[in-house]
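Need residues for this backbone.
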């Protein structure tokens, strides 16, 4: 009887051990994918992630901030699986740190640089951006909202286009002194929306999703580097993150990108 008892006990122990062994990986698989993304992608990625979760049953956690902040967090060891940057430079920087899977990278969306004003400002549809900027420059003391040109992609694009327009609007340094510098492009659009500043240089997508601001016009695309959003898997991220990256190129995802004021690769 004792022999039978211990045999049954051993069998039960092995069964429990096997069930625990099988359970652990499945629980690990249920851990949400962690996506780090530029804040200008938030409006598009939230519905995309909702659709992805509904279709696949897999959970995704989205963390948004300025691309430079996120890239530095990744370099410091943040456990993200996917990075969606607001420009190529920060994605390339992470590559030089050997923190990405280069072959996983793809351009999922594009944007354009825009001049915006508070929603209640009367403007016509044929406003010339240079004329508007010159009119603003004539108003001493007024400021213009711009994301930090030294760290934030939207700010770097703004600096490049303003320097390119110097023949039309005067020295960049004169505008630089009157910038209301923000930590990301979303904050720049918020300043304009609150009418705390009369003008802002932000992305076209901000003008689409922020009801408190109005589009004056788009800056020439050849006045600054292409505004693209590279998405890629991080080296220490989960290999199944590629499924999410593929989904970002789906027809449904592209629809959400366009709805959020972004442009999709043809």
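Answer:
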């Amino acid at each position: 009887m004792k022999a039978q008892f211990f045999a049954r006990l051993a069998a039960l122990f092995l069964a429990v051990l096997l069930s625990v062994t099988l359970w652990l990986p499945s629980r690990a698989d249920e851990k949400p994918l962690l996506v780090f993304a530029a804040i200008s992608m938030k409006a598009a990625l939230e519905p995309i992630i909702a659709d992805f979760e509904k279709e696949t049953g897999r959970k995704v956690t989205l963390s948004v901030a300025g691309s430079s902040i996120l890239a530095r967090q990744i370099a410091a060891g943040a456990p993200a699986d996917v990075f969606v940057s607001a420009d190529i430079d920060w994605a390339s920087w992470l590559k030089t740190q050997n923190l990405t899977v280069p072959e996983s990278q793809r351009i999922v969306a594009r944007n354009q640089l825009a001049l915006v004003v508070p929603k209640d400002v009367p403007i016509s549809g044929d406003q010339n951006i240079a004329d508007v900027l010159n009119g603003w420059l004539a108003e001493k003391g007024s400021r213009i909202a711009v994301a930090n040109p030294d760290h934030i992609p939207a700010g770097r694009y703004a600096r490049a286009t303003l320097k390119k327009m110097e023949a039309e609007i005067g020295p960049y340094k004169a505008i630089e002194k009157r910038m209301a510098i923000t930590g990301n492009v979303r904050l720049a659009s918020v300043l304009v929306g609150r009418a705390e500043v009369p003008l802002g240089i932000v992305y076209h997508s901000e003008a689409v999703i922020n009801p408190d601001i109005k589009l004056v016009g788009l800056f020439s695309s050849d006045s600054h580097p292409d505004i693209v959003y590279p998405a890629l898997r991080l080296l220490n991220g989960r290999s199944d993150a590629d499924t999410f990256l593929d989904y970002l190129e789906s027809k449904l995802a592209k629809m959400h990108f366009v709805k959020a004021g972004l442009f999709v690769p043809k």
